[in-house]
Amino acid sequence: MEYTHVKHTFLPVYNEESRILILGSFPSVKSRENQFYYGHPQNRFWKVIAGIFKEPLPQTIDEKKDLLLRHRIAVWDVIDSCDIVGSSDSSIRNVVPNDMDLILSNAKIQGIFANGGKAHQLFVKYCHKEGMPPLGKLPSTSPANAAWNLERLTEEWKTAFETYLEITEQEKTFEKRRNDNG
C-alpha cells in the first residue's frame, strides 16, 4: 500500500441560490484526473441527479455545473488534503478538512447531505458545528455500493431532497409572482 499526500485541486460548485449541499469524502483518482466531481464512469452520481430531475445525463463539466446550479445544489468534499492509497476512502488519514463556512456563509443552504457513510463520518468528525443546517446520510453513489441499484439510489436521494425541492418550488413561484407584479 503506497500512501500519497494529495490536495483537493478544484473548486466547490455553488452559488448564492444553492439550497442543498452534497458532500463527498475526497475525489477519486479519476475525479482528480478530470478535475471535477464524480469523474469515475462507474460512479452513479450524475445518473442519480439527472434521474431526480428527469433531465438528460450531463456530459461536460459545464453541463454538470449547470444541472447542479439550476436545481440549487452545491457539491463539495469534506477533505481539502489527506494521505490516501489510490481512491480508497478506507485508507484516508492525516485529514485537513475543507472550511464549510465558504459555502454556508455565501449560499442559502438548508440541508447538508453526505454521499455515503465515509463522507458522513468525516464531516461529523472534522466539520460539523452547532447551528449548521441539518445533516443527512445518503447511500453512496460509488460502484462499490453494489447493494443499491440505480433506481433504488435515485428514489432514496429524491425522497431525501423532497422537502428542500418543495421549498425551492415555492420560492420560485413567489419570486415569479413578485417579478410579475413588480
Automatic annotation (TrEMBL):
Coiled coil: none annotated. Residues 11-158 form the Uracil-DNA glycosylase-like domain. InterPro entries: Hypoxan-DNA_Glyclase, Uracil-DNA_glycosylase-like, Uracil-DNA_glycosylase-like_sf. Signal peptide: none annotated. Pfam families: UDG. This is Uracil-DNA glycosylase-like domain-containing protein. It comes from Roseburia intestinalis L1-82.
